Structure formats: C-alpha cells, structure tokens
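Quick review question:
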C-alpha cells in the first residue's frame, strides 16, 4: 500500500478510482488505496481503491445474479451491445487515449494504436451469432440426429497488466460476454482509469447490470478470484512467475485457466536482409512504448560479424535521433517507464550488463528530460557482444534495452532461440524464401514474423506463445477465445417410431 491515504487526506478533491459493481461506481470500503502516478512527472495524480474480500465477493454475486438472464439472451442481441460499444469507443477515443497516456506514459499515437487493436477484438465479438453456431449431422444412425453447441461457463474473470490497459482487457471480456458469460475484470492498479471509463461506455451501449464488473485491487483481490468456486475460468496476462502462480492456483481450485507470461523475443538478421528497413523495424520494436511490451524485441541475433557491425552502426545512428519525452507530445518517439521502481530496475540491468562484460554502445541511463526532471525517463540503451550466459540476455528486462548477439549461421541463431525458456514471439529479416520457410517451420516459438518485427496476430487469429510464455492449452482472443469461454455439448436424438424394439446389449454401432 502506498501513501495514497495521506494524499487523499491532504486533498479531498483528489481523483479516486473505485470499483464498478452491478452497473454502478461503488466507493471502496477497505480503507486501502494505492497512488496512481503520472510517469512523465513523477507526481501522484490520484489514487485507486484496493478491494477487500467482501468487495470482490459482492462483484461475484452481482455477476452470478446477472448470468441466467444474460445466458438466455440471444447471441444476436449480445452482439448488438458490442456494435454500440465499438461506436462509442471510436467516438471517445481521444479521451480514452489521454487516460492511457496520463497513467501509463506511452505516447498518445501509440495509445491510439493500442485502442484500435482493442476495438478490433470488439469487432470480432460482434460475430457471435456466427462464431457460436454448432455442428449438425442428420441420420448419424437410423433416424438419429446429432449436433453440438457451445454453452457459456458462467462467471469468469480476467486479470490484466499495466502495459496495455485498454487492449488486453478488450482481448478478454467482450468475447467472454458475447459467449453468454458474465465477467469480473481486475485491471492493473497502476493505470485503471481507462478501464473504468470503457465500463461506463459498455453500460451506455446497453450492457445489462451485473454482466461486467470491475474490481481494483492487488493480490488480496486476485486470490479471492482464484479460490471462489463461483468463478469458472480465469484469463491472465503478466509476468511468467505470476502466470505460473495463477495457473497452478486456479487449476487447484477447479478452474479453466489461460495464463500468458513473459517473453524474450529474438529477431534474426540474415546477411541478405534489407538492413535499412530492418533497422527501422527494430527501432520501433525495441524502443516503442519504452520496451514495455510482451512482443517487444530486446534481442537481435546478427548472422555474421559483418552484419553485426553494420547493424550496430545503423542502430547507434538512429538512437542519436530518437526523441524521448512526455507521451502527450506526439513528436516524441518514446515516453517514460511506468514507475520509479521499474525505472531503477531497468537501469540496474544496464549496470549489470556492463559488469557482465557486454559492450554498452549507447547509454541512456543519464537522460534528463527538461521540465520533467522527476519523470521516470531512461534513454534507449544498446549492447553489443552479448552472450547467452548474461542476465541481460536471459531475463525479461521490460525496458528500452536492446542486446545484439553474434551468430555464425541461421541454425546457430535458431538454436539460441529454442534454448531460451520463453517462446512468445520471434522474427527473421531476410530476402531468402527458403531460409524464411525453414525458420517458420522449425522455430519453437508461438508467434513468428518474416520481415515483421511484432507479429501480433489480428483479432480473428489467436495470440499466445510456447514454453514458459503460456500456461494453458488455449491462446487469447480470436477462435481460441470461443473455445476458452464456452463448453461444448453434444446431443444425440432419436424419436420413437411407435414400434417396440428389442433391447440391444452390445455397444451401439452404425450398422
């Protein structure tokens, strides 16, 4: 818990983010709060209530009460709510993005890109009547018909991270809701305002009371969601240690769990690559959103020293022109990190890289942004001659730190990627179709790009990694989300013909 209670005592008008339960904004009763900071200024801009057990249980009860009527609402009517929500979010996009930038720090046009990708998932959810169609077979046996249908699970929950406060929740609850479930969202306490505003837009779009609830909180709230038997499924995005905890705890309590964890995404640059375009792509992938993306590229594997030297030279030149500053100025390329503590952690990794013997080509640790001296800023950092035994290579830094590793061949580069504990995303820069095909066929990673540095699937495909980047069998959003938020029921039906038949004691076959 932070000093938010003191902040509130000093200024009664301080912005307080509470909870959204049963269609209403509900003031916190736990007495616990956390400060919300503007990362560009380093100053607290408000506080968020941290839910206790009773508040989470109230949200669960609200969702449970709303479930029977919502389950029986035709999918077409559920989809109509999503159509209206999409329009409302587009009409209020500037306000939503301003809330993201104020609390997360990312540049406004980056926030707009995040929101657009979230809206695309709402668009996909609008297809619920088609997506929820089952399968039907007539005469699977003598006068016997069989069909399958997708039925909702009940009350489900999502626990989402700070780095995409609008998009990741929109990966979860719109699809869960159009499938007929009711939902409890536990967003990051670091940047909760946009989630609360979008919940209000959902109410304006006609979402019935109790179908969507938002509880703000920390581990106390999470543990209630993981243990309460009324919660049937949990979706999570965050770091691997927490993802593993969510997966194990949720499973132990009989829940379906989908837990997306960390990443250390590698890009391979081949000798035949279009190096100028590769560098432009890598700059955005490594330093966009200050590197706080699970699909960021923090490692480049240069195949051959000639490629490595050229790559370092071009990246160094680009970093010299990169603009860092508050996200409200869209001329900036990169904003601040999310918290003071995380900024200190990232700088500590840069210190460690130097100690480990990597060559620090560009050092952003001492960056000072004029007028924002207390902000959580760090400049882009670039390491060369990084080796797989270094912590800056193995660990997920989640900051604007790019490591260049040298390899002698494509296979050696792929072996490095395959040996890493994470398998979220990867890409290759090449003009060689044979090399690209071999790479995409054989690399042990869940999302793969060819000359595409951030291979984030569009809304009608599904998102998820391999190895310790995903715990669970189903990926996020897209077709997998229908499977995750529903259970299949198969019905086999026969009507009596009026003629008495003899008992059959053998296993039924279609003879």
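Suggested answer, residue by residue:
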């Amino acid at each position: 818990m932070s000093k938010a209670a003191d902040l509130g005592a000093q200024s009664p008008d301080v912005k307080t983010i509470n909870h959204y339960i049963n269609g209403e904004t509900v003031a916190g009763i736990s007495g616990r709060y956390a400060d919300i900071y503007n990362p560009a200024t380093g100053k607290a801009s408000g506080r968020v209530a941290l839910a206790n057990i009773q508040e989470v249980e109230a949200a669960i009860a609200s969702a449970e009460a709303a479930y029977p009527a919502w389950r029986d609402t035709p999918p077409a009517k559920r989809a109509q709510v999503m159509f209206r929500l999409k329009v409302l979010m587009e009409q209020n996009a500037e306000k939503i993005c301003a809330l993201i930038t104020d609390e997360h720090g990312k540049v406004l046009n980056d926030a707009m890109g995040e929101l657009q990708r979230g809206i695309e998932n709402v668009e996909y959810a609008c297809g619920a009547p088609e997506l929820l169609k089952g399968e039907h077979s007539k005469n699977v046996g003598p006068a016997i018909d069989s069909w399958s249908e997708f039925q909702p699970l009940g009350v489900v929950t999502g626990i989402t991270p700070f780095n995409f406060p609008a998009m990741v929740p929109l990966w979860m609850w719109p699809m869960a809701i159009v499938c007929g479930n009711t939902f409890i969202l536990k967003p990051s306490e670091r940047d909760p305002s946009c989630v609360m505003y979008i919940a209000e837009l959902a109410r304006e779009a006609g979402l019935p009371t109790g179908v969507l609830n938002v509880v703000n909180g920390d581990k106390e709230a999470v543990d209630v969601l993981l243990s309460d038997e009324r919660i049937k499924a949990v979706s999570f995005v965050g770091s691997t240690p927490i993802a593993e905890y969510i997966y194990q705890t949720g499973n132990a309590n009989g829940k379906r769990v989908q837990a997306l964890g960390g990443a250390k995404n590698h890009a391979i640059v081949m000798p035949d690559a279009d190096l100028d375009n590769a560098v432009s792509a890598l700059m955005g992938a490594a330093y966009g959103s200050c590197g706080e993306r699970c699909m960021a590229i923090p490692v480049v594997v240069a195949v051959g020293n000639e490629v490595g030297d050229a790559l370092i030279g071009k990246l160094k030149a680009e970093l010299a022109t990169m603009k860092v500053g508050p996200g409200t100025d869209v001329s900036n390329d990169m904003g601040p990190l999310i918290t003071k503590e995380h900024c200190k952690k990232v700088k500590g990794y840069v210190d460690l890289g130097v100690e480990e013997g990597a060559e620090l080509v560009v050092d952003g640790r001492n960056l000072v942004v004029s007028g924002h001296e207390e902000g959580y800023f760090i400049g882009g950092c670039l390491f060369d001659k990084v080796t797989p035994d270094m912590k800056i290579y193995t660990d997920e830094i989640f900051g604007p730190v790019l490591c260049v590793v040298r390899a002698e061949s494509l296979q050696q580069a792929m072996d490095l990627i395959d040996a890493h504990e994470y398998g979220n995303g990867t890409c290759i820069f090449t003009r060689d179709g044979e090399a690209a095909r071999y790479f995409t066929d054989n690399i042990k990673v869940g999302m793969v790009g060819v000359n595409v540095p951030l291979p984030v699937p569009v809304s009608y495909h599904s998102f998820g990694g391999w190895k310790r980047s995903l715990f669970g069998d189903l990926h996020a959003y897209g077709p997998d989300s229908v499977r995750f938020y529903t259970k299949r029921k198969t019905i086999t039906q026969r009507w009596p013909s009026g003629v008495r038949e003899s008992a059959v004691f053998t296993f039924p076959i279609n003879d």
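Why it works: Residues 327 and 419 are 37 Å apart (CA to CA). DSSP finds 17 helices and 23 strands in the chain.
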